[in-house]
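Dear V.,

Thank you for sending over the compound details. I've combined the ligand you provided, flavin mononucleotide, with the protein sequence from our construct and run the structure prediction for the complex. I'm sharing the raw inputs here so there's no ambiguity about protonation or stereochemistry in the SMILES, which I know was a concern on your side last time.
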Amino acid sequence: MAATLEKALQDAQVGLKVLQVLTENSYDSILVTDATKDAKIIYANKAFKTLTGYDPSEVIGKTPRILQGPATDRQVIARLADALKNEGRFEGKAINYRKDGAPFIMHWRVLPAKIGSRTKVWVAVQREGFEI
Ligand SMILES: Cc1cc2nc3c(=O)[nH]c(=O)nc-3n(C[C@H](O)[C@H](O)[C@H](O)COP(=O)(O)O)c2cc1C
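Below is the predicted structure of the protein with flavin mononucleotide bound, written out as structure tokens.
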């Protein structure tokens, strides 16, 4: 990170504003969950609605499992569950379902946001994939 941005981010209010501008204008869908076993959604950006059809307000408190369905590859999900258990990172593709039930290929990364060695929240960056 450039030293100048690092300096600007020392002001927590500036940090929050930069984060807000980035997430609200990102072309990629961004999902943040808490660090509980169930990984409950605490934030979804506007691009999440474009991708999935769910309004951010209706997914807060739910788990991203709402995106899964019969054709979702359980092996990919098992790999993700492992990453969560080990507080590691995940990248993969699997069939997910939009709010209207239409299947699509989700291509996503899940990353732990750690302070020291403790995962405080999980962050996902998601977009539509074109081949599994
Ligand atoms: C930040 C985050 C984002 C997630 N995003 C998705 C997603 O886009 N699609 C999906 O199928 N699962 C997603 N998951 C995975 C599910 O929430 C759940 O962790 C997964 O199904 C493994 O648990 P299970 O084996 O108990 O179902 C995400 C998990 C986290 C922590």
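A first observation: Residues 31, 33, 39, 63-65, 67-68, 72, 77, 80-81, 84, 94, 96, 106, 108, 110, 122, 124, 126 surround flavin mononucleotide (CB under 6 Å).

Warm regards,
I. M.
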